[in-house]
Every structure is written in C-alpha cells, then in structure tokens.
Amino acid sequence: MLTRRHFIITSAALFSGAIAAPGLAQDSVGFDAQVTRPDPDPNANNPWGLHPRFMPTRVQHRAGLAPGDIHVDATARYLYHIGTDGTAMRYGVAIGRPGLYQPGVFRIGRKAEWPSWTPTASMIAREPEVYGQFADGVPGGPENPLGARAFYLYTGSRDTYLRIHGTPQPWSIGTSASSGCVRMVNAHVIDLYDQVEVGSTAHLYPV
Question: Which residues, including other chains, have CB under 8 Å from residue 64's CB and lie 6 or more apart?
C-alpha cells in the first residue's frame, strides 16, 4: 500500500475552487436545495465556518496517480480526487474516531443520492444508547447521518460498510468524529458525486 508521501501535493494550491439503501431520487432536488447555495461556486462563501484549508482547492499531485481515484490523507484530513491534468481537487474531511478508522485500498462498489441509513450491528452493540433507537433505519434527508451523497467502499464483491459520505454535522470536518467512515460537507460531496465513477479506487491512508 502506498504511503501518504506518495500522493501529497508537490506545490502550493493552484486555486481554490454504515449500511445504506439506495437514495431517494424523487427528493434529491428539494433536499439539495436545502444544503447548497444558488451560487454554483463552492468557495463563494463558507457558511459552515470551516478553516480555509478545508475548503475545496485544486492542487498539483505527484506523478503516477490514476485519474479518477480518491486518496484520503487521514493525518491532514484531506480527500483528493485525482484529475487528468496533473491536478487533484482537495476537500476537507472528518475521519473515524481512534480505533474505528480503517485504512486500506477499496473499490467504490456503488454510490447513492440521499441514502437511507441503518447502523450496523457492531455499532449498536458498541453504543446501544446512541444507535439502538435507529435500529429500524433512518430515511434519506438533510438530517440523515449519511448526508447528501454516499460512496460505498467494497473489497472485491464484499461491502465493507465503510462509506465516504456527506454529513449534517459540518463542524466535525477536520476532526476524528465518525464510526469509521469519511465525512464531507454536503455541498462538497454533491460537487464530487458526478465526478466519481463506480469502480474507481479509494485509498484510505493510515493516520
């Protein structure tokens, strides 16, 4: 497995720019409007109060990385989506809490808009007071823990139950906060969603 030294940017920024069911397509447009702004520029403002470094930024990356792949730098709390021109789009993320983050190389087996969410059995067993009440699932929507979009991480044909997804808690970006998944601001994961193809590789690097 590559280390984060193999993909970190080579220069300053060029410019700023769980278990889940299929998404609820009929509600996507209305839900999207609740978590995005009319201005299509994701950097037009920062209503979430993120540190500027966690805002979407186009950067150069080291040579040899496959276009379309995702790389998550768990130390810096960055997600990079590799482009075709020697640059990558960088987003701020939150990662799993200590002991729950799982590094590895995964395949994006599917993706969904406004997915529903059901905590895994291990989540309920670990924190029944937190997750037991959601054992029957939570429908897709702005308050759903998976947020606006989700990428499902597989190993071969096996769903790992790890996700890269949006979150209704944008203040968690830059921290270790989740039960193992990688979180993004809803507006940012919407921006990324159509750029990522099913079958792409996601590299989650160790902390």
Answer: 6
